[in-house]
């Protein structure tokens, strides 16, 4: 018996011992010993997720016990077989095994049997009954440590999904304490579940950190990772790291299906469907959810069927194929989930049912469902409360009560701000904005109807670049080892690419893996729990403008709107269809990129004509209707999708841009020590970089110069702290797939957005004479990640950067002119304007440089 009892704690050691014991018992003809050994061996196979093999061994052991009349041994085997049948999705068969085992077992075995009964009750959705069983097991004097650990673990998981946060947290800590006394395998499994519980209780960063640690522990003891992948996918989905979540959910589905665990495979498939829905892939969401429904029905799991039904309904709504019957099905699913006590799932189901009812014109049903979602979300973790706020806002909007809708939207965005403040990672804070997108749109719609420019501007600032309102303390040492390793891999990769025909697949895979490790390390850190900054109001902005006009652009559904602050006046401008702006913006980007590549004269002329036409049309669409004087300096806060426009080329006076008016206001208040020391940096492999550096250095009386091989990332970071102005002449690498790893190419490595943020590197003024250096990547909720946003948030007062690829040699005269004016004490925007005015535009490549660079911030 000791081999079986200790298996749950250390299967890697005891699994082979169980096989040896079974072989010895067969040879000796010792039936009872063989039954015990087969049960232990089966448990090892179950822990390895080889349930079909485990069932074979348990069926053999049950047959031996029946024939030998060993009733108590038969009862023990039936208890183990119930667990295996459950994981195979055979809930009725598992329940029969538990019922048959009861009369056969002695009192001492009752806790183990009751634990299995509780698990069965949980899986068929009878959570209250299961919790009563788990509590009884915990209190039973004969319960072993491992049985008590598993009971506390299961009680915590159930309490979390029922919204009972204190109970969930207390029981998972008890489970961890007990599991540590049993062995490394059970400790790893409970640690994995602790990560999920923390997440469901609203502690996302801590939950992710716990899960990542648990995955390492599970691998160390040789246990499969399918369930851990599924739980990690759930955490990442809550953090809105959706591509990573989808990849892990797909791995979980594949591994769990391969290992004969249809019970958990069905759950992972539903998680995959939910993530696909979040990513806007309604077709994939419906396909996965329908496959999950078929599995859950076969397993007689009504709660899981209800959750799948909700996903199917929402995917049909988004695909435009919704019917009134779908709304009814979603409503019944919501009621079923509420009866089962699944609070978060019930809130989401009521919200989906309300949307569906609204879509098919059943307003009374929609109002009931939205009210139920709002009521049930009270006191729940923050992401559930946000769904309740959205439901209440939708209900108010459907009733025509704009004031009530706005109150709910405001309250929801305040709660989202607190959630965002609990995340130390800028990337996670940016991703978190996705939770508030619809609240932001509802509020914006209400305020546009009010016609108040100030209120529209104030609202836009609530939902724009809010991730940068809080900045975490520098902590480069937290990822120093991974950073060194990544730098080495990048150096290898650069060298390999210089050798013709060399395969770099393995190096690219290592680079990706290290980047992911670096990101996850920053994701694990927790924030202070509150955003340190506040958004600037329209009145305060007007006071900061010194003869400038400020234009804050927004997109509301398919329309572009702008709030203009100009000479003390505030006005709201409706600029028309977003599709027209997007068409011209895409045409301009394509033409500018074409102009910097060699080509036939006819193709170049066509591209140049296209660029000039698109530029003129964008002026007509976005600037001319504002009524701003031609000689009035402009402060531009772009709308989502317009950050890469060449704003300097759209107005006939100095232009400065910023991700938000709040960030711009912060730069206005930062003193800039004109005449301070300058740093000029040249990167490797760039023709003309050292010439550019020499020209720029000649504009400043006090200057440090770093050129290859001295211009390493570490040397640059060390030198920045001594300088007021930094100029980079190097290759830029835009990573739209992973913008925190967009980089400037330096000697022997890169300086990434991630490292700038982690080290809190923020010189007062920066000129990025690099391709695409201003191409910050947009996220849902008007969030941006990239060099410009990171620098302005960390304390830089002014940046000049390019929104497109720039021709290197032709940029030198523009840079000489720019730096001459900066050295004379001019601000970035006016210095760039005058430098551009002196720049010829008769040559296509000069024209590209004239368009490419924009000033950011007020410095």
TrEMBL record:
Matches recorded under InterPro entries: CHAT_dom, TPR-like_helical_dom_sf
Pfam families from the UniProt entry: CHAT
SUPFAM superfamilies: TPR-like
Domain CHAT: start-end pairs: 614-857
Protein name per Swiss-Prot or TrEMBL: CHAT domain-containing protein
